[in-house]
Structures are given as structure tokens and as C-alpha cells.
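Support request from a user on the community tier.

User writes: "When I paste my C-alpha cells into the form, the page sometimes reloads and wipes my input. The last time it worked, I copied everything first. Here is what I submitted, just in case something in the input itself triggers the reload:"
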């Protein structure tokens, strides 16, 4: 493997992508190699979403953590590709649950092939990943990944349970986020540390690093539903609210806005009848009461805590890259 990047050469997220392009190309090659089902439709549907422009954040984090811990082999590409398979399976299932028409600016698999195919291909990707991962015969990897899958399922159920409920608390919201989004990100980081033969303390530090930036990522993403360029995101603004999801910006607003506006929001969530005028009113209220800014600041506190986890490791280009990825989690598309 060629000599890695220097600390001074990595200052921005673009530098990270450039410095680790060869690593990510290795993951990408492995992803395509693993699309080898004898049922052509499985490969077609999986390729549709796998080629839709995802950033491969989880494979990048797994690779960075492995390199940080001294691992120099190529099995990291296989493991990173399998984590991406699991992530892709959750996206296929989520789009069915959410009745989503677009993902990353493209028609979702469910809109092209239907809900049944999307669910079954998602199941295939889960199974494919697990079959390959057990072949590593590493109990630590098996445990961390199975726990992440359990937590993701629980997070999805919790989100459905609270759907349409504007009275959810911030701690309940964060519990959903920790399970549904942060679980697999944390697992990716820990898997990297496991194959790098890191100490238990280092493994725990990278797990918590991943968990915290995973929470930050989702909290920041939830602010984009009210504050970002909808065309750039590939979806319409206000989709979470239209689907009855109470996210942190909305929670903050409900705690501070007048009763009349609070009742309007509750009514729209219960009836799923959000007009463009309603959305404009809610976004205006969020700006007035600082709800979007509050959520973004909360996300940044998780990133700050995550960077403290990296103190377990000596300064290096890989540690620097992880810190930049953490910052990217809350600053993308803003």
C-alpha cells in the first residue's frame, strides 16, 4: 500500500476524499463484486440504490479507524462494503415505511419496482452481509454488528410508535436517533478498531466517537428538512413533518411558540394535511424562536464530545481525517 497522507495535507473534507480515494475505490470494487446474486432483479435493484450517489461515510469511517489502529491489510475493503450493504438494506426498508418517492434526487426502488421487491432485496442485502461477515470468524465483529442491527430495528419501531406524536421528549427523540442512525456508524468505527487489534479502551473510544457523530449527523440532517436547498437534497422541504415525524427543531418550536401555533402544528401532524403556507409559517416561526439554530448547536456539542474521544490516540493523518469527518457531519449542505 502506498504511503498515506500527511497531517498537514488534510485540512478539509475535500482533502479527505482525495487522500483516501484509493481506499474508497477498493471498497467500491468490493461492493460490485458482492452483487452476484443468481437472480438478476436482486442485482439490478441493489445497484440502483448503491449507485445513487451515497457518500460512503460508513465505509470511510471503518477504513479510517482501521488505519488509525495500525491495520494495513485489504480485508478492510470487504468489511466496509458489507457495512454499506447493511446500510443500503435499511434505506430500502425505510423508503417503504415512509412511502418515499425520491432518494438523493432519484426515484426510490419502491417507486420503480414496488414495495414487495424493495423489502425482499433489503432482506437479501442484510443476509448477504451477515453470511460474509461470519466468515471472518471474529466474535468481536459479529457481536458489534448484530447489536447494531438490533438497535436499528428497535429505533425504527420506536420512530413508528411516536409517529404523529408532538409530545415526544428530547431524550426520547435522541434515543431513536442513537438506535436508528448512530448504531451502524458506531459499529463501523469499532469494527475498524477490532481488525486493527486496538486495546479495549481504544475500541470503546472509537465506538463512542462513532455514536456521537452519528447522533450529530441525524440531528443536523433533521435541520436540513427546514433549512436546506430542497433541490440539492433531492427531496421536498418539510417531508419529516408531512410524515408525522417530530424532530429536534420542531420539538424546540413546540416548547416556545404560542398556543395557537402549537395547536396548528399538532393538527397538521395528526391529519397529515400540511400546506405550503403552513410550512412557510412553521419555518418562519423556527427562525423567530431559534429552533433550527438550537438543533444545529446541539449537533455541534456531540461533535465536540466525539473529538475528545480521539484523544485516546496520537496525532496522525488518520486522526486528523476522522476529526474533519466529524465536522462534516454537521456542516454538509449548509
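"...and here is what came back when it finally went through:"
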Amino acid at each position: 500500500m502506498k504511503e498515506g497522507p500527511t497531517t498537514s495535507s488534510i485540512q478539509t473534507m475535500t482533502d479527505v476524499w482525495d487522500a483516501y480515494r484509493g481506499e474508497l475505490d477498493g471498497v467500491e470494487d468490493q461492493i460490485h463484486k458482492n452483487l452476484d446474486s443468481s437472480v438478476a432483479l436482486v442485482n439490478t435493484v441493489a445497484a440502483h440504490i448503491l449507485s445513487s450517489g451515497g457518500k460512503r461515510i460508513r465505509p470511510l469511517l471503518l477504513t479510517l479507524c482501521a488505519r488509525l489502529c495500525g491495520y494495513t491489510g485489504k480485508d478492510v475493503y470487504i468489511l466496509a462494503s458489507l457495512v454499506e450493504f447493511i446500510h443500503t438494506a435499511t434505506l430500502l426498508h425505510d423508503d417503504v415505511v415512509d412511502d418515499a418517492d425520491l432518494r438523493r434526487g432519484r426515484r426510490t426502488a419502491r417507486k420503480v419496482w414496488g414495495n414487495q421487491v424493495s423489502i425482499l432485496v433489503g432482506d437479501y442485502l442484510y443476509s448477504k452481509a451477515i453470511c460474509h461477515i461470519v466468515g471472518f470468524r471474529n466474535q468481536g465483529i459479529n457481536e458489534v454488528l448484530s447489536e447494531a442491527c438490533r438497535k436499528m430495528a428497535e429505533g425504527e419501531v420506536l420512530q413508528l410508535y411516536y409517529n404523529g406524536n408532538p409530545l415526544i421528549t428530547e431524550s426520547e427523540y435522541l434515543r431513536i436517533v442513537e438506535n436508528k442512525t448512530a448504531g451502524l456508524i458506531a459499529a463501523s468505527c469499532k469494527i475498524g478498531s477490532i481488525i486493527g487489534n486496538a486495546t479495549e479502551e481504544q475500541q470503546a473510544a472509537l465506538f463512542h466517537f462513532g455514536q456521537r457523530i452519528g447522533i450529530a449527523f441525524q440531528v443536523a440532517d433533521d435541520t436540513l428538512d427546514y433549512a436546506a436547498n430542497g433541490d440539492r437534497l433531492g427531496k421536498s422541504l418539510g417531508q419529516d413533518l408531512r410524515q408525522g415525524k417530530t424532530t429536534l427543531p420542531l420539538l424546540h418550536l413546540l416548547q416556545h411558540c404560542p398556543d395557537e401555533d402549537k395547536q396548528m402544528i399538532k393538527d397538521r401532524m395528526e391529519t397529515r394535511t400540511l400546506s405550503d403556507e403552513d410550512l412557510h409559517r412553521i419555518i418562519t416561526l423556527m427562525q423567530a424562536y431559534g429552533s433550527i439554530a438550537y438543533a444545529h448547536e446541539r449537533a455541534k456539542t456531540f461533535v465536540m464530545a466525539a473529538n475528545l474521544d480521539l484523544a485516546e490516540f496520537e496525532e496522525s493523518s488518520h486522526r486528523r481525517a476522522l476529526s474533519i469527518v466529524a465536522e462534516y457531519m454537521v456542516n454538509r449542505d449548509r
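Agent notes: The reload is a front-end session timeout and is unrelated to the input. The chain is about 75% helix and 0% strand. Residues 200-227 form the longest helix (28 residues). Escalated to web team.
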